[in-house]
Design brief:
The chain is α/β, with parallel strands linked by helices. It is 29% helix and 29% strand. It has 7 helices and 16 strands. It binds nickel (II) ion (NI).
Length: 340
Amino acid sequence: MLTEEGIEILDLPLKTGLVARITGAKPGKKIAFRTDMDALPLEEKTNLPYKSKKKGKMHACGHDIHISVSLETARLLNQKKSELCGEVLFVFQPSEENGKGALEILKTGVLDGIDAIFSLHSSPLLEVGQVGIKEGAITAAVDLFKIKIHGKGSHGAEPQNGRDPIAASAAVISSLQTIVSRNLNPTDQALVSVTHIQGGSNWNIIPEEVLLEGTIRTTNPETRAFVSRRLTEIAENTAAAFEEEASVEIENAPPCTKNDRELAGYAWEVAQKCGLEPIRPEITMIGEDFAYYQEKLPGIMVWLGVGKTKTLHNPEFSANPRAIDVGARYFSEMILCFKR
Ligand code: NI
């Protein structure tokens, strides 16, 4: 569609994803509009005529809506090139769900010298015509952890000959919940979730090892570092109390998405001008790799209302397609009027 409209596609070393450029007739700012594109490994449970045609793959996070909004925004702006100042890059980014795609785009250097970056995410909490706009943190920093508790295997009836990693794991899991409830300031935002346990093979065997996996979500760098440190201390010392050992690995995924204050004000104004209803949303503890762009340049992500529906990542999530036109009119106005 971009090519049919005569929109330039940049030659970049990307396996999937692309960046298109519209250059305005007048000089001005350089803006990027970022769209994520990936689906999720879910079997779609809607009966929509446009439901996923791929078995076991579904746009349950609304990224298909994002692509459509971006394409339509590009089409509208391409028609208004004579009024457009500066240039706009349309970034169709791969691999948002694994948190790695934004870094791939940044690595190409295509965003060097860009003045601001805009993005959107579907919101199943807002009606079509509503947009969620907030300065500061809107999504959380994401860390993944893996704890291995090493005990000593034995017969299930002879615990005295072993060191039970299942008993130690139970104590570790309970104690990890005290980080948020007992170590942090109650006004701080954080969570620790153990989401995967693996250990043992049979009812009469005490196993050698138990694996625990989970996630840490925080909204400021100090808390992020503190929770990681406490998690490690609790796992290691609790295991030691059971005469066992814990090894802890923590992998940092995207940091917290923090919207630029001025851009948030601007987005709010444009929403009102377009006859939309701006709403100040609550922060959510999901992750978003848009945060990596915001480490380099001022950026804003707006929640686009897609009608109230099941949550993101649910097999019955279904966005109202009327949101596409609403989003495209809004973002083309935002880009066209941007003078900062
Ligand atoms: Ni998403």
